[in-house]
Write a structure and sequence with these properties.
The complex is a heterodimer.
Chain A lengths: L25 H7 L3 H35 L5 H25 L2 H24 L4 H30 L2 H33 L1 H25 L14 H11 L3 H36 L2 H34 L1 H21 L6 H27 L5 H37 L6 H39 L10 H13 L4 H14 L4 H8 L5 H13 L6 H11 L22 H14 L18 H14 L2 H15 L4 H14 L9 H5 L4 H14 L5 H7 L6 H11 L4 H9 L5 H14 L2 H13 L6 H14 L4 H36 L1 H7 L4 H36 L2 H12 L3 H14 L5 H8 L4 H7 L11 H10 L6 H14 L5 H7 L5 H14 L1 H7 L9 H14 L31
Chain B lengths: L3 H9 L9 H10 L1 E5 L4 E3 L7 E7 L2 E5 L2 E6 L4 E2 L3 H4 L6 E4 L3 E7 H10 L2 H36 L1
Antiparallel strand pairs in B: 1-8, 2-7, 3-6, 3-8, 4-5, 4-7
Helix pairs in contact in B: 1-2
Classes of the chains: A mainly alpha, B alpha+beta.
């Protein structure tokens, strides 16, 4: 029998670099923030973006120039209005076609369709009398190209990259547009002089066709990302849009309206400036070739400045000034330039003033605004974010275009009635400038209001625990938190505010919390003092110290005479007083420990006494230290728990384990678990290396495991290696091992994630590996800010994760094959013989059937976890919830979500496996991964046992029970190997099987199997000894060696030899 | 001593464990103690604090309040199920009728199993809520009848 070894494939640790990268250094990729597997896709997308954009920009320059010369700027409002109509109609048409055509065909079709009419336009321009119509159609087509090209580009990028990849690759891809600005701009004058303005269209067509070809290549190269099948029905995600929009209530609704106004004003202002600019262009330059040349150069220079701003300035400005100030730059600069042009007329030439205006508008719009605007949507809860974004961007832009077209058209009509030519250009400009000023001021106001609402929403999100996903305007948030702290409110709310403040502005904590100290309740006073001490700021230290001292009522804590009767802080809670003492002494430049000695008196509260002793040990002279240590010694051996508890805390604070080494060992066995926990905390605080092993041992004790966990997390990388070794120690119980791995995840450093990833990869094919893989996946997914996911992708790569998914599919293939070939239902029915044998046969078949079913369920769960490494958690969770639901409709919904989300090579097989269909169909769908050959039931069972390392312990045990009840023979090697299995019930099943299959071999083996660590197996061995060798009378042999148990993680691929 | 499979088949019959997976149950069953009792032995008495579940593996026991017999339990039956969770005093006494063997699961053993496999707790919660729902459904007609009776008395 040939064993199917396909299950044993393990994904490569490091992926082979693609051919493009073979010669390049990884440093370049790091600089570009790319992963090797993303390079080819990113480059192709970059090329597609750049080629298409060059074509569109040439089309824009030539069509605008021809339009201005044929129609003049006065007709532009008509274009704006019909453009809005065209954009709306085409957007709608696009979504309709998208449902009817496979995505790949649609994307490529649209890309070519955008280019082809340019040829017709060129032919039309050659026909006399058609030029007027053709130029208008060209200008209108340009609007259509803007819309469709934008849709096509975004969909292609979204299909090709998942959201995490997109964050890294999209800035690079989108800079293709800026590069196109430069290339098309500077080349246009050359092209114009070479072929003339009409023939520029042919070049534009050529570039757009080149873009389409690159897209075709992308679609062919990454087939799985672009499904060929039509969408079956409306996506459930789309269905959620409507339900999501219903959730927009209150604060969120107001914010969404402001966002809508923001984008409307942005687009409106853009069109007003554009109109004035083109109007001046036409009046000043006149000829279409000159206009096109000017536009080309303008675009080139603009592109260069945009590129440098984007690469070197934009992100820094956003980081330094915050998104809202950056967004104010555009309307602010527009106002400034308009004042220079109109108010100070004569100082600046009207034409050049408008060129500057247009330049600033384009520059800031496509760099600062484009970078900052997406942040506005981050305050919206994640579940409705995409919906609000689509609604706002999809409706606001066309509506603003239509509105601007109507306003400009109305004004032009008015000027026409007054006589367009008789109205001086400056007056016309002043009227439009007035409009722009109104728009810009309104825009500034909207930004101001948005800022307030944005902060409120962020605070709400933070209260819901969603802060980790927000990269908001932290300055505004800090202000809001300070306000919340000063207002009356619950202690819990204020505690959250202090914790949030310590996360977002640790250095400024003293300035904020110091003045508030007297008004806070004791719990918050203590917390404030602790966080201020954890993040001292030299700038505000003296002021904060004075405030803390003032809190400690009346007596100057720093003067020894004041401490002769330490009544200081008598009104304070002992824990607050202790925290205040700690703050004052630890932040003092030259701390004097002497005043603290009076706090060592036995009548002082243990918390204060312990703190004083710890501070003296840290800062005092040897004589005082001896006194303090003596006090601590008494505390540690005091009969009262509170004394020992505080003593342990002081141990950690003073880091004096060595000095008190005689007292420490007895504390490890202290009857009070809180004392033992405090000791563990102290070990971590003092970084007492000698006692790190105790931390690991304490993980086995339920009363101390939490304290040990916190201590190990606090120590981070320091104890990581020991922790990993502990987690891999075969002598440690499995639940404790999993607990240790969970702590590795909580540590969450890159080193910890590297260990987890390495283990995730290696867990396959080892006993208990399936449970470990499940646990590791959950641990990795729980690490905040998706660091676990990033870590796995960094180390295994997308292909590595796909390989893990394939392994699960291979396992499923084996299980389905087993269910088909074993036909367990019939096997039980066919059982014949004495009643007990029939009952045994029925039970064993039923047990294996249930075990195989559970294996399938487990594998599906692991598959969903693996999918979350590659795709948005929300989508996968929704799909998993729907698929696991009992309802047929929900199952279809879940599969639809997966169909629209996944782009895996074996997506179809995965969907079939998750669908509710017969085993045979599921097995067939997996045929590409692992071909199916029908086997006799006994042979299939033998194959299952060969794959023992990939099965759960219980499934393996059930296989032996079935073999026994059916009297099937199993391979000797595998049987003997399983006799050394680490799990008791597997050994027990093997012994039962051997009793049936080979009693003589078993009899020879039995002495070596006694004693067994498992009490049930032990009893079974004794019983077998009596049954098989009555002369022994159930007595175990006197000289026996405990059998060597097989290490739990021995790979199933290795040959396993019997003892 | 019972084998793991025998133990599993017994444990599976306990209502709170009925929907749990075999691989969880077999581990839980392995933790249980197998205890033998002589005939006429009182396993526990009414009012005694209880923290264990018993499954009759061999023999027969009677549940009684003083001398009044409430029920007889044979192989496969279980008693003391609820005290696993609430540790309340036993509501009746249990005495063996003949030599008995029982599988005993203590609260501590169950908690350890839950710690290892939290799904057990989820399943138990599901079952207990279902029981409350059933009780409510049974009680509703009784209560409604009571209300109707009260009204008719008042009228």
């Amino acid at each position: 029998m040939k064993l199917d070894r396909s299950l044993l494939r393990i994904p490569s640790w490091r992926l082979k670099p693609s051919s493009l990268l073979r010669e390049r250094t990884p440093r370049l990729l790091r600089w570009l923030n790319l992963r090797p597997e993303e390079v080819e896709r990113t480059l192709l997308m970059f090329g597609f973006y750049t080629a298409t954009s060059i074509g569109v920009l040439w089309l824009e320059a030539s069509s605008v120039a021809l339009f201005l010369s044929q129609y003049g700027a006065r007709t532009l409002p008509l274009i704006y209005m019909s453009g809005a109509l065209v954009a709306t109609v085409l957007g709608w048409l696009y979504s309709r076609v998208q449902r009817r055509l496979p995505l790949r065909q649609m994307l490529i079709g649209v890309a070519f369709c955008l280019a082809l009419p340019l040829l017709l336009f060129r032919l039309g321009l050659a026909v006399s009398g058609w030029a007027l119509f053709v130029v208008f159609a060209m200008r209108l087509w340009l609007e259509a190209v803007y819309v469709l090209s934008d849709l096509n580009n975004s969909i292609a990028a979204n299909q090709l990259f998942n959201i995490r990849e997109l964050k890294r690759t999209f800035p690079l891809i989108s800079s293709g547009v800026l590069l196109a600005d430069v290339l098309s701009g500077f080349s246009l004058p050359l092209v114009l002089s070479w072929v003339g303005i009409e023939n520029v269209l042919l070049f534009a067509c050529l570039m757009m066709a080149l873009g389409a070809l690159l897209l075709l290549r992308l679609c062919q190269r990454y087939r799985t990302s672009f499904p060929e099948a039509r969408r079956r029905s409306d996506s459930p995600v789309a269905a959620r849009v409507t339900s999501g929009t219903r959730l927009l209530r209150g604060q969120l609704q107001r914010y969404s309206r402001l966002l809508f106004a923001f984008f409307m004003l942005s687009q409106g202002l853009y069109l007003l400036v554009d109109f004035q600019f083109l109007n001046q262009l036409q009046q000043t330059l006149g000829q279409e070739e000159r206009i096109a040349q000017f536009l080309g150069l303008f675009g080139g220079v603009l592109g260069l400045v945009e590129l440098s701003t984007q690469w070197f300035l934009a992100s820094r400005l956003i980081e330094r000034l915050g998104v809202f100030i950056v967004m104010m730059v555009l309307p602010g600069s527009v106002l400034f330039i308009l004042m220079a042009v109109v108010a100070g007329s004569g100082l600046v030439n009207l034409f050049w003033g408008l060129v500057a205006l247009k330049f600033c508008d384009e520059l800031f719009r496509y760099t600062l605004l484009a970078g900052a605007a997406p942040v506005l949507f981050q305050a919206i809860p994640e579940r409705v974010q995409a919906e609000v974004q689509a609604l706002v961007r999809g409706v606001a832009d066309p509506l603003a275009t239509l509105g601007a077209g109507l306003v400009i058209g109305g004004l032009v009509w008015l000027f026409n009635h007054l006589g367009w030519l008789t109205v001086p250009p400056l007056v016309q400009a002043q009227v439009f400038a007035g409009l722009v000023v109104v728009g810009a001021v309104a825009w500034l106001l909207v930004i101001f209001w948005l800022r307030d609402d944005y902060v409120r929403l962020l605070v709400l999100s933070a209260e819901r625990g969603q802060l980790s996903s927000i990269e908001g305007d932290l300055r505004s948030m800090k202000r809001a938190l300070i306000e919340a702290l000063s207002r009356p409110g619950t202690e819990a709310d204020k505690r959250s505010c202090i914790e949030l403040l310590s996360q977002i502005d640790a250095a400024g904590l003293g300035e904020v919390l110091g003045p508030l100290l007297p008004e806070l309740p004791p719990g918050l006073q203590q917390l404030s003092l602790e966080v201020m001490l954890a993040h001292p700021n030299p700038r505000s230290l003296s002021a904060t110290r004075a405030q803390v001292q003032a809190l400690s009522v009346g007596v100057d804590l720093l003067r020894p005479q004041g401490l002769s009767h330490p009544t200081s802080g008598a009104a304070l809670h002992p824990e607050v007083l202790a925290a205040a003492l700690r703050y004052l002494w630890l932040t003092a430049e030259r701390p004097d420990a002497y005043p603290l000695t009076s706090y060592l008196r036995p009548d002082q509260n243990p918390a204060v006494r312990a703190t004083a002793a710890a501070l003296i040990v840290r800062t005092g002279a040897p004589v005082l230290v001896a006194q303090a240590l003596d006090s601590l010694r008494q505390m540690l051996s005091h009969p009262e728990v509170s004394e020992r508890l505080m003593g342990c805390r002081a141990l950690g604070e003073a880091a004096c384990f060595q000095a008190l080494r005689d007292q420490v060992p007895q504390l490890f066995n202290d009857p009070a678990s809180e004392v033992r926990c405090a000791l563990l905390e102290a070990i971590a605080a003092a970084r007492a290396q000698d006692h790190y092993a105790v931390l690991l041992q304490s993980l086995c004790d339920p009363t101390t495991q939490t304290a040990a966990r916190l201590a190990l997390v606090r120590l981070g990388n320091t104890t990581l290696k020991a922790l990993v070794e502990f987690a891999e120690d075969l002598r440690v119980a499995e639940p404790v091992q999993l607990r240790a791995w969970t702590i590795v995840g909580e540590i969450g450093t890159p080193a910890a994630i590297a260990w987890l990833t390495q283990r995730l990869r290696a867990a396959w094919g080892q006993y208990a590996g399936l449970r470990l893989r499940y646990a590791l996946l959950k641990i990795l997914l729980r690490i905040p800010r998706e660091a676990g996911i990033e870590g796995v992708l960094e180390r295994l790569g997308r292909r590595g994760v796909e390989a893990l998914i394939d392994q699960e599919l291979l396992l499923l293939a084996q299980v389905y094959a087993a269910r088909l070939d074993l036909d367990l239902e019939n096997l039980a029915a066919k059982a014949s013989g004495p009643n007990s044998t029939v009952s045994e046969a029925v039970h064993s078949a039923d047990l294996l059937a249930r075990a195989l079913h559970d294996t399938l369920v487990d594998s599906q769960e692991r598959l969903f976890l693996l999918l979350r490494l590659l795709y948005p958690a929300q989508a996968i969770q929704a799909a998993s919830f729907n698929i696991q639901s009992e309802l047929g409709g929900s199952l279809a919904g879940g599969l639809e979500i997966l169909d629209n989300t996944l782009n895996l090579p074996h997506k179809r097989a995965l969907l079939t496996v998750l669908d509710r269909c017969p085993d045979a169909e599921k097995r067939n769908s997996l045929g590409e991964l692992a071909p199916y050959r029908r086997l006799r039931a006994a042979e299939r069972l033998r194959q299952l046992i060969e794959l023992r390392a990939f099965l759960s312990d219980w499934t393996l045990a059930c296989c032996f029970h079935l073999a026994r009840s059916q009297r099937w023979s199993l391979p000797t090697k595998s049987t003997l190997a399983c006799l050394r299995h680490p799990t008791g019930y597997v050994r027990e099943a093997v012994l039962s099987y051997l009793q049936m299959a080979s009693p003589r071999t078993l009899l020879a083996l039995l002495p070596r199997l006694y004693p067994d660590p498992n009490h049930i197996v032990n009893a079974q061995v004794r019983s077998l000894m009596t049954t098989l060798n009555p002369s022994a009378n159930g007595q175990p042999p006197l000289a026996t060696q405990p059998p060597k148990r097989q290490p739990r993680r021995r790979s199933g691929s290795e040959p396993l030899h019997a003892d | 001593m019972l084998t793991s499979v025998d133990r599993l088949l017994f444990v599976r019959r306990v209502p709170v464990f009925q929907e749990l997976r075999d691989d969880f149950l077999v581990r839980l069953a392995a933790l249980m103690d197998e205890v033998g009792y002589p005939p006429q032995h009182t396993i526990f008495t009414e009012g005694q604090e209880g923290q264990s579940l018993f499954i009759v593996v061999r023999g027969q026991v009677r549940v009684h309040l003083g001398l009044q017999e409430l029920a007889r339990l044979a192989q496969g039956a279980c008693f003391g199920e609820m005290s696993l969770f609430d540790s309340e005093p036993r509501s009746a006494s249990v005495t063996t009728l003949d030599a008995c063997e029982c599988l005993v699961l203590t609260q501590q053993q169950l908690y350890e199993a839950i710690d290892e496999t939290p799904d057990i707790a989820v399943n138990i919660i599901r079952l207990l809520s279902r029981r409350i729902r059933d009780l409510n459904q049974r009680l509703n007609p009784v209560l409604q009848g009571q209300v109707a009776q009260d009204r008719s008395v008042k009228a």
